[in-house]
Fold this protein.
Amino acid sequence: MDKFMDNPWFMKGVALVLALLLFSSVSDGQGNESKEKNVPANQMVDTIENVPVNSYFDTENFVVSGVPESVDVTIEGPKSIVQTTVPLKNIEVFVDLTDAKIGTQTVKLEVKNLSDKLDVTIKPATARVTLQEKITKEFKVEAEFNHNLLDDGYTASEPVVEPSTVEITGAKGDIEKISYVKATVDVNGPIEETLTKSAKVLAFDQQLNKLDVTIKPETVKVTVPIKNTNKTVPINIVQKGTLPNGIAIDSIILDSKEVKISGNEEVVKETETVRVEVDLAKISEDTVISLPVIVPEGITKVTPDVVKATIKISKQEQKSISGAMIKAEGLLEGFDILFRDPENGKISFTIIGASETIKPLTESDFRIFLNVSNLGEGDHEVPIAASGPNNVTLKLEKERAKISIIKKSEA
């Protein structure tokens, strides 16, 4: 017998039989047993992933942070128990902070609702958590929306928030970080009328990082008053420069007599007209030119911003009008005026313009006057002023008048 066992072929056969027995003892049906752990045939290992973690603590007075949302739980034990436990997934992983102190600490993760015949491994097995005092504080809500969505010519007044304050509850450290409490209005443009929207309230720190706190109420009503600052005003034509000799302006007609302006509310309110300027020195024939509309500072938009001017010219002629009476304006009550030069207060003048324009004009179409509103009794020399129809140049034979202001004689 000893000789038989010493035979090398006998030993090789025994080794082969043992290897086959070991292989057959390892299950290859579901892949749940680990060959590396050398788990016995009646035992089983399985891992349940993403098991939620619950926290037990005084929720009325404290806030906890640092607890993982979920963990992986590996269970090992009798195959029959493991196979019935894994599908149910009714195990609970938790941290018990009922006796924890305020501050940061390392706590052990525990498990329940498992058979005591199972070995359990939680990954991670511990957590670094912070327990803080819970406080509630009142904050004013700041409403905001994108002003760039306002249509041209519209402005927004200060938004009205209802309720204007909210109560924010959270960890004392987070509440102390709050720098901004905002309700952002989500709206599409262009905005042309007052809007009222429900907006969610969020709390932010100094760097505008959102803070994990509880806000009551979660939403507020925001009303944004919108004003229309558009206004329609007429265009004045301002003539600058001097026409070439022998030419007169017959007419200047704009393709648009008025424009719509918008901008600063006060400036728009005070603006009654806008203007275009025609450089007469550049006019030598009938023409059509484009002119930019000139507006006061503070007007941000004008529509149209360019108008076309159709200019008609004609041969320039002149006409003399004599014996026009000079009127005194602003004479104090109880006084009379005596004209010394020109005598009797009459003056001649020449008008220059297109033949069709000046031909029908008479003395009554012009206003020749003196402003004596600030003059008292005595002799004075006063500038003579004149005005008349557009596109007509007026030349007085005298630029100044010599007068005397005297008291009226008593009857």
In short: The longest strand covers residues 306-325.
